[in-house]
Amino acid sequence: MKKIEAIIKPFKMDDVREALSDIGITGMTVSEVKGFGRQKGHTELYRGAEYMVDFLPKVKLEIVINEADVDRCVNVIVETAQTGKIGDGKIFVTSVERVIRIRTGEEDEEAI
Length: 112
What we know:
Strand order of the largest sheet: 2-5-1-6
Mean pLDDT: 89
Structural class: alpha+beta
Low-confidence stretches: none
Radius of gyration: 17 Å
Order of helices and strands: EHEEEEHE
Number of strands: 6
Shape: elongated
């Protein structure tokens, strides 16, 4: 099993969720997060004063899936979330050793 963590722009969330649903990915965890990479934030004007916004709003998707589905899932996220502009985000793929569904006690693939 693998865990995919994708950091994307917030306005792309609905499109990504719908595209993942179309390929059969139904379960995910979504968090609103803030951060920066090469974008390094930006300046904004508020009541006539300019200030620096260091941490930009992003959305973090977490999906645990069978290893066979990883490439398909990653490709869908890239194709759907990509704008071609700086700050499109990143995808991290890591191994998952064990999954347990609390309600039933099912483990690993059955718990996904």
